[in-house]
Amino acid sequence: MTMLLKTLCAALTALTLAAMPALALSSAEDPFFIWYTFAELDLDTGEMSDDLKGLDGKEVEVPGFVVPTEFNEEGVVTEFILVPSFGYCIHVPPPPPNQMVYVKMKKPFTVTDIWLPMVVTGKLSLSPVESEFGEVSYLLEGDEVRVYKGEGGSML
Question: 5-33: per-residue pLDDT in tens?
Answer without folding.
Answer: 343 334 334 434 444 433 333 444 556 68
